[in-house]
Design a protein that fits this description.
It is a single chain. This protein is mainly β and 124 residues long. It has a single domain, classed as Jelly Rolls (Sandwich), CATH 2.60.120. Helix content is 0%, strand content 49%. The protein has no helices and 12 strands. The chain has a 6-stranded antiparallel sheet with strand order 1-2-3-10-5-8, with no helix packed on it. Strands 4-11-12 form a 3-stranded antiparallel sheet, with no helix packed on it. The radius of gyration is 14 Å and the shape is globular. It starts with 9 loop residues before the first strand and ends in a 6-residue tail after the last strand.
């Protein structure tokens, strides 16, 4: 039974105001699911991207808006947000505090950003 200790997590922070901490994934012992912690500082947005599997965000702190086409949904601490497949979306923290969530998706998830399709490194 794999256990991922805090000292063994991997941090991803290539985008200003964004932190992703890889928790569970195939490279960390999970065969079917991936989970990571996401933090967006106030005012920060994700790049526009589309997914080939659902992604679920369990909101731990703050709030987040997800824009899919003309639809904007908002979730806050204690709730959850489900990102659909095949539709370009953007996550945005309207502030004033950081947004934090645990995100989960199938281990095989792939994202498309600006025409490039890839397995997110925190989910691989």
């Amino acid at each position: 039974m794999p256990v991922v200790h805090p000292s063994a997590t991997v941090r991803f922070g290539d985008i200003e105001g964004t932190e992703i901490v890889g928790l569970a994934s195939p490279s960390r012992g999970s065969a079917e699911l991936s989970a990571w912690r996401l933090r967006l500082e106030a005012g920060v947005s994700s790049p526009a991207h589309a997914l080939d599997h659902e992604e679920v965000f369990v909101v731990l702190a703050g709030r987040v808006q997800m824009t899919c086409g003309a639809i904007v949904e908002e979730a806050e601490a204690g709730g959850a947000l489900i990102a659909p497949t095949g539709t370009e979306l953007v996550l945005h923290n309207p502030g004033p505090e950081p947004f934090e969530a645990i995100a989960c998706a199938p281990a095989a998830i792939r994202a498309t950003v600006a025409g490039d399709t890839f397995a997110p490194p925190w989910a691989a």
